[in-house]
Design brief:
It contains twelve helices and 19 strands. An eight-stranded mixed sheet has the order 12-9-13-14-8-15-16-17, sandwiched between helices. The chain has a seven-stranded antiparallel sheet with strand order 4-3-2-1-7-6-5. A two-stranded antiparallel ribbon has the order 10-11. A hairpin with a 4-residue loop joins strand 16 and strand 17. Helix 8 runs parallel beside helix 9. The longest helix is centred in the middle third of the chain and has 13 residues. It starts with a helix and ends with a helix.
Length: about 350
């Protein structure tokens, strides 16, 4: 299903309390296309993040970049209603996700949850008194993995880990990578399996895949990653398995089985730098599986889908493409890498 970004915004806004939903759905289409987040805080102004800049709405739905006395505030009742809708009116069944800080809502959008943690034995077992929600609007940017494919997949499939801090574009790149590899844009129509535990890559809704992941791609929606990987291996003989945020014990065991079957993997991990990545025991375990030949380290959230460094795990660093010049072009030890265009840089 080919959705425009304004339609994706409308889908994300469906979970809002009715008064808030009517207000944001009344925004112009061009505005909706540029909004990345919808932030709700109890008794404080409703804020929309437009290309990284806070946007405030007044009581009549007018938009301004300055917080004024008539800025529309979110009432406790509106926040509670929104939170309950996000949980499908079953908070208990979503508690594992809430403890982890967010819930994935239909369309692949992510709703961050902020409240008071209840701990037991040093671990969070519940979150109460939710007083803030941040809805990140999922996007589909068809050029996001173009440079990655041209540089890393020139000679065929390669196992990769996409690493980066929050909002750096990890999921966006994996989504476009699935589309390109399964649609023949890398030399052949590879059989791709997407294990989409939280429906953030393919954005499956009621069995319908909303994001374009290509013509030769199978989506395992809501499968735990380890089980989804094993199911794909047993029944669908994929050339590559793509999944987001990998690292649990079951995930690693399933990856090891895939490697033994000759399957390549593309997955993401959180890391803000090379040093942070290498210091994580999770990364050491993943690297030891032999499934990943390269790490693609992304820049920060201000430069989404921008490759900062490519690390060759079979040898030494392949290339260092840090941007020290400020001219928008990434320079370093390897060839010059032009920044990947991103809608936030281009306007509507």
């Amino acid at each position: 299903m080919d959705l425009q970004q304004s339609e994706r915004f409308d889908l994300a806004a469906e979970v809002l309390s009715a008064p808030l939903r009517r207000m944001v759905l009344g925004l112009p289409k061009g505005k909706k296309e540029r909004i990345q987040e919808i932030r709700l805080r109890e008794n404080r102004p409703l804020i929309l993040i437009e290309q990284g800049v806070p946007l405030f709405l007044d009581e009549r739905g007018g938009a301004t970049y300055i917080c004024r006395g008539n800025s529309r505030c979110v009432s406790p009742a509106e926040l509670t209603d929104t939170f309950n809708k996000i949980c499908g009116y079953s908070v208990h069944s979503h508690m594992d996700s809430i403890i982890n800080g967010y819930i994935t809502i239909p369309g692949g959008h992510r709703a961050g949850i902020c409240g008071t943690a209840v701990t037991q034995g040093g671990k969070i077992v519940n979150v109460r008194d939710v007083h803030a929600v941040n809805i990140r609007v999922a996007g589909e940017y068809r050029n996001a993995a173009e440079d990655l494919v041209n540089r890393v997949f020139r000679t065929g499939l390669t196992g990769i880990l996409v690493a980066g801090p929050p909002s750096s574009g990890k999921t966006t790149i994996l989504r476009d990578l699935a589309r390109r590899l399964s649609s023949g844009e890398a030399g052949r129509y590879y059989k791709i399996a997407v294990v989409d535990e939280r429906d953030e890559i393919a954005g499956t809704r009621s069995g319908t895949v909303l994001n374009d992941v290509g013509v030769n791609c199978d989506v395992f929606s809501a499968y735990p990653k380890g089980e989804g990987i094993m199911t794909a291996l047993r029944a669908f003989s994929p050339d590559m398995i793509i999944c987001d945020e990998i690292g649990g014990e079951a995930d690693i065991r399933a990856v090891e089985c895939g490697v033994n079957s000759g399957v390549r993997f593309a997955a993401s991990v959180h890391a803000s730098s090379r040093e942070e990545l290498f210091a994580r025991s999770q990364f050491s375990r993943l690297a030891a599986t032999g499934a990943f030949e390269k790490v693609v380290l992304l820049a920060d959230g201000n430069h989404p889908c921008t490759i900062r460094e490519v690390i060759d795990l079979k040898g030494d660093r392949l290339e260092d493409t840090r941007d020290d010049s400020g001219d928008g072009v990434l320079h370093g030890g390897g060839p010059v890498l032009q920044r990947i265009p991103y809608p936030a840089d281009q306007g509507a």
